[in-house]
Each structure stands twice: as structure tokens, then as C-alpha cells.
Amino acid sequence: MPTLATDHAATGGGASALSDVTRSEASLRRFLHGLPGVDQVGAEARAATLGTRSIKTTAKAQALDLAIRMVDLTTLEGQDTPGKVRALASKAMRPDPGDPTCPAVAAVCVYGDLVAEVKQVLGTSGVNVAAVATAFPSGRAAMDVKLADTRDAVAAGADEIDMVIDRGAFLSGRYLQVFEEIAAVREACARPDGTTAHLKVIMETGELQTLDNVRRASWLSMLAGGHFIKTSTGKVQPAATLPVTLVMLEAVRDYREATGEMIGVKPAGGIRTAKDAIKYLVMVNEVAGPDWLDPDWFRFGASTLLNELLMQRTKLTTGRYSGPDYFTLD
């Protein structure tokens, strides 16, 4: 399992390499509370400033295609049916059937019991199947239930697992419990062939109360073995915000500086317009760096965003703005 660090890792420059340490509540608490505090006013001001940046028309077409490639096309409703998710999977592969140059999305995200339906449609298309697990969205279940949930989704063919942390444990200061749960879920993502489904750790930032907690939860999730850190389930408001994503991008940037390892970021929930998506892409480039401008390292968790991106893309291509009914409903 992953280990923690004895050195005080300074984020924001000159981070020393993380060294092995015995995992204990005291060492984990000391590490997380030793991280520099977040200036909330400063973070909000910087996020607002980055949100005003504009890009050239020539770059906008590339940005729209990149944003489409970063979408995890998502449906997580109790009324989801096999027919609905199969249709969504078809759209994921060919978002605009009338334009073969339109790229596919990154993944289709569904509940675990529908993974096999999606996998059958996607086949070898290169679009991944993501499954929410670990008693999504609350995370309130016994550990054996969470692990069984994860293993079932992986066995059904999930390429990616989106787990939720126990926010009650985190907010109570039981950091080691959260760490060990993430590490155990990471192990449950293993496949018989020796490969591992990628693990996205949902922190539900709308319940974490402060940006300091967002930074701590980000580092905790990375240290425990998450491949991605994700803002939200989409079931709690506020979901993804620019200031929260700014703090997470700073965390992955500093984690790579300290360890040499890249971790992905996924804002999810509430990102509905192409303009908003481009704001996030600008922030990724400015805060983490261009290496993260890739679907392997940055995703949008969204259900309605794709149609908006397609409408803007069509306008750039044809000069005409198509209404939302021009594309299939997600």
C-alpha cells in the first residue's frame, strides 16, 4: 500500500521528495495540517481573474474539441434503463453523427449494474466505461459492501471507478480511516490480468466547508493511491467551482513536484456551458500546466455540457447556431 511522508511537503514551490513513513493517525494529521493554508479571498480573486481570460477564435475550435474529448458523459438516476445507457454510449462514440470529424468523449459514467450494457455498446471504441461505487453518493456503508461494489463493477468491465470518500470520517479528523479506505478500494480495482481500473476519488467538496479541507482531502486522496481527484457527486450543491478546482490543480501540480507522479483532476456537477468549460481549460493551463490539457489528466463530469459544446462547435463550423433540439437529449 502507499506510504506517507515524514518531510513537511511545502506546496507552491520547492517541495521535497516524499519519503516513506509508518502510517499512523498522528503522522497523517501532522502532515495534512502542516500543509500551507489556503487564502480563500486570494483563491477566489485568482479564479475570477482567470475566468475573464479570452482565447482567439482559431483556438476556440481546438478548445471545444478538447473539451468534448474530456467529457465523462454521465447519467446517475434511479430511472436509468438499459436502453437509456446504451443510447448514451452510442452518443459518446459519435456525439454528432452528421459530422465524422467530431471527436468521441472520454468515458460514459453509470451505476455499476449498468456497466455491462455500456461495455457491450462501446466495445473497442476507446471510450471508457466509468462506474460510481462505494455506496455512491453518500458513502455510508460498511467497508465490505464498498469493496464488493467496486469489485462487481470492475468484473463487469469498468475501466474506471469513481468512489466517494467518507466525509463524516474526514470532517471528524479520522484521516487514517479515509486513507485506508481509499487504499483498499484501489486494491479492489485490480483485474485478474494484473492491470488496474483507474480510481477517481470523489471528495464532495461542497460538504468539506473550507478550501483548507479541499487541499487536505486532495493530498490525502493522492497519497492513498487515487489516479484522479474529483470534486463532486453532482448530488450536492455547490458542486464544481473554479476556486475549488484551482486548489485541486495546485495540489496535483505540487504533488508532481514532490513525487514525480501526475494525478488527474475531474470537476463534476454544474458545468453546463462551453464558456464555462473554456474557463476551466484556461485555469488548467495557467495553474497546473499544459501537461494536464489531456483527457488522461483532466475530465469534465457532465450530462448536459456535451450538447452545449456541440452547438458551439456547429456554429463555428457552419456559421449558424443550432438549437438544443438539433442534438439528442442526454
Automatic annotation (TrEMBL):
Entries under SUPFAM superfamilies matching the protein: Aldolase
Enzyme Commission no: 4.1.2.4
Record keyword Lyase present: yes
InterPro entries linked to this entry: Aldolase_TIM, DeoC, DeoC/FbaB/LacD_aldolase
TM region(s), chain numbering: none
Catalysed reactions, semicolon-separated: 2-deoxy-D-ribose 5-phosphate = D-glyceraldehyde 3-phosphate + acetaldehyde
EC category: lyase
Family: Belongs to the DeoC/FbaB aldolase family. DeoC type 2 subfamily.
Protein known as: Deoxyribose-phosphate aldolase
